[in-house]
Design brief:
Keywords: Iron, Metal-binding, Oxidoreductase. By secondary structure, this protein is of the alpha+beta class. It has 12 helices and 14 strands. The strands form 3 sheets. Strands 1-2-10-7-12-5-4-3 form an 8-stranded mixed β-sheet. Strands 6-11-8-9 form a 4-stranded antiparallel β-sheet, with no helix packed on it. It is globular, with a radius of gyration of 20 Å. Bound molecules: N-oxalylglycine and nickel (II) ion (NI).
């Protein structure tokens, strides 16, 4: 019998077509820089819908994503917090987690390192550029055709856990604290992800919690840099296209104070304002598969603004390569499974060969 291979990652997971560096493009102030031809690839045919809650009665108060106190969830007064988590997973797909036990210094250090990295000269960042056919490094993801509308952002994507998945030559060596900082951050966030998944397993009545906590076995990070965008196009550009996360569980750190994340809610787009020290958590597509649709991944996007740059850092959690994803028998019960079984490797390749487009990955996973 062979163990699930947690010490090897497949090499050819896919890649993205090369695209211009957006930070450099946005920084150009010469006359010829931001011509319609250059910007054409970023401008959407339709203006972005902005309506927050089209169905809300006039004067209704704006909703806020639920807040989960992890300390309380794991300690005594479990029931109330567990019920809050259950409804966050069933009804929202998004919540903020506070009292998570990650030292404030680690969060602040991580933010500082991400900001310092993106502030480096282009040539230094370009030394970490994605290699053809590779997903890790500095560049862009999910560009599969020359025709698709591009997002107004750059990103740095790295695999962080388990350590054997790391490609350390793509980890920044400047700022000099980056690697150590990412290591500490990664361990803390992975712990929180595991604890949340354990609480979800409890809520779902899944006896063997590892059926869910195994979704924290591997981890990757996506650091997003959204430059200010040209005034004339702000309503037709996006920093990140509407998508759900094709992963197990995402924990997002808002790096700079500028808002921008919006989630799909009641047919509109609801802005999320991070609480100080909180992480924003969302249910990924894989949890939707495992729970047979009981918990749903929710679409979200990032808007840009004309004045300020914005940075964020998403930490994704998944099962290890060598394992599979499929609806859990205990959750499916007497129902029909709605999603097919797929190996983590096949699933990952599907994700990296697709464009970021709403819940397209979920559609590909659905039975019939
Ligand atoms: C992501 C994401 C949102 C943001 O990286 O998957 O949804 O606010 N980011 O940057
Ligand atoms: Ni996302």
């Amino acid at each position: 019998m062979s163990d699930p291979m947690d010490d090897a990652k497949p090499r050819n997971l896919g890649g993205s077509l090369p695209v211009p560096n957006v930070q450099a493009l946005a920084a150009r102030t010469d006359e010829l820089a931001l011509t319609p031809t250059l910007l054409r690839r970023y401008v959407r045919p339709q203006p972005n819908t902005v309506d927050l809650r089209p169905d809300a009665p006039a004067g209704a108060e704006q909703e806020h994503v639920p807040v989960i106190d992890l300390g309380r969830l794991l300690a005594g007064g479990r029931d109330e917090e567990a019920a809050r988590l259950r409804s966050a997973c069933e009804d929202w797909g998004f919540f903020q987690v506070v009292n998570h036990g990650i030292p404030e210094e680690i969060l602040e250090e991580m933010k500082r390192n991400v900001m310092e990295f993106f502030a480096l000269p282009l040539a230094e960042k370009a030394a970490l550029a994605q290699e053809p056919g590779g997903v890790e490094g500095y560049g862009q993801a999910f560009v599969v055709s020359e025709e698709q509308t591009l997002d107004w952002a750059d990103m740095l994507f790295l695999l962080t856990q388990p350590p054997s998945y790391r490609d350390l030559h793509l980890w920044p060596s400047r700022p000099s604290t980056f690697k150590n900082c990412l290591e500490s951050y990664s361990v803390e966030v992975q712990r929180v992800a595991g604890e949340l998944l354990g609480a979800m397993a409890e809520n779902l009545g899944v006896r063997d919690h590892s059926d869910l906590t195994r979704l924290a076995a591997s981890q990757s990070v996506r650091m997003n840099y959204y430059p200010p965008c040209p005034e004339a196009h702000v309503d037709r550009m996006l920093g990140l296209s509407p998508h759900s996360d094709a992963v197990g569980l995402t924990l997002l750190l808002q790096v700079s104070p500028v808002p921008g994340l919006q989630i799909r809610r009641n047919g509109g787009w609801l802005p999320v304002t991070p609480l100080p020290g909180a992480l924003i958590v969302n249910v990924g597509d894989v949890i939707e598969v495992l729970t047979n649709g009981k918990y749903k991944s929710v679409e979200h996007r990032a808007v840009v603004n004309t004045r300020e740059e914005r940075m964020s850092m998403a930490t994704f959690h998944n099962g290890n390569f060598g394992t599979t994803y499929g609806p859990l028998k205990e959750v499916v019960g007497e129902e029909e499974p709605r999603y097919r079984n797929v190996s983590v490797e096949e699933y990952t390749k599907l994700v990296f060969s697709s464009k970021l487009d709403g819940k397209n990955i979920m559609d590909a996973m659905k039975i019939n």
